Amino acid sequence: MSVRQVICINWGTKYGPPFINRLYAMVARNVTPPFSFTCFTDRREGIRPEVRCFDLPPLDVDMPIGTKGIWPKARLWGPKLGDLEGPVLFLDLDLVITGSLDPFFEFGDAGDVVLARNQTTPFERLGQTSCFRFPVGKLAPLQEVFRADPQAVADRYEYEQRFVTRNAPGGIRLFPRSWVAHFRQDCLPAFPLNFVLPPRLPRDARIVIFPGGVIHPAHAIEGRWGEKGERLSVRDHVRQALARPAGKRFRALRHYMKPAPWVADHWRE
């Protein structure tokens, strides 16, 4: 059996060792050996020894500004990626693994670029790069296009996942929709049920992603909406929401969730 290769990337201080170490532990519990776990990072202190660390792949460009996409991920598209060869499965640091990862390595052919399906754009066939598999070096042509004019690429495509979806050599495939759940879309009950029901884990989900940078697993465990959110009673939350300007009240009402203890069951070392 070939080695199942998992990679992640970390820069700056937003996530760091606690997220990297939890992600490694979740992978180790949910993949059939042999496997490797490699982190490309600008700082190694505090990362558990089982994690193979490499410096961030070089990409000497000014990153786009005023864009929604996470364009530093373009560092992973180069012709070389540490000492890795063949297909690698990239995972965001803030996702939660809830089931076996083996099917993510078995789906399609080894030469395919395979992305999770982006659930928030039902009328656009768009991949989601919170979880995607690609052969090392296959996306190098995309990196060259991006390197030539990063801001123009970002202005045209907004998100790096749209750029990959539309330009990957040979096209892309999408993992089955049920394998990757979007926490806000698939787990949170719709308003007004969010006031009485906790977030649920879809039966067939193997990974739960937290895109957008608003809610992280720790917030889901505590039942608060992001860093600035508070754990309020339903009454206090409704009171605060109704005190907002008329155009923001419904949005504020929807931003309530009860704790999700199942997240803590999986998001741990």
Q: Would you kindly provide a written description of the structure presented here, covering whatever features stand out?
A:
The chain is α/β, with parallel strands linked by helices and 269 residues long. The protein contains ten helices and ten strands. The protein has two domains: 4-175, Spore Coat Polysaccharide Biosynthesis Protein SpsA, Chain A, CATH 3.90.550; 180-266, no CATH class. The protein has a seven-stranded mixed sheet, with helices on both faces. Helix 3 (140-148) packs across helix 4 (150-157). The longest helix is centred in the N-terminal third of the chain and has 14 residues, at 17-30. The model has no long low-confidence stretch (mean pLDDT 94).
Features:
2 domains, Spore Coat Polysaccharide Biosynthesis Protein SpsA, Chain A, 28% helix, 269 residues, globular, alpha/beta, 3-stranded mixed beta sheet
What are the SSEs and their pairings?
Blueprint: E1 4-10, H1 17-30, E2 35-41, E3 52-55, E4 87-91, E5 96-97, H2 102-106, E6 114-117, E7 127-135, H3 140-148, H4 150-157, H5 160-167, E8 173-174, E9 180-182, H6 183-187, E10 207-209, H7 217-222, H8 234-242, H9 249-254, H10 261-266
Parallel strand pairs: 1-2, 1-4, 2-3, 6-8, 9-10
Antiparallel strand pairs: 4-7, 5-10, 6-7
Helix pairs in contact: 3-4
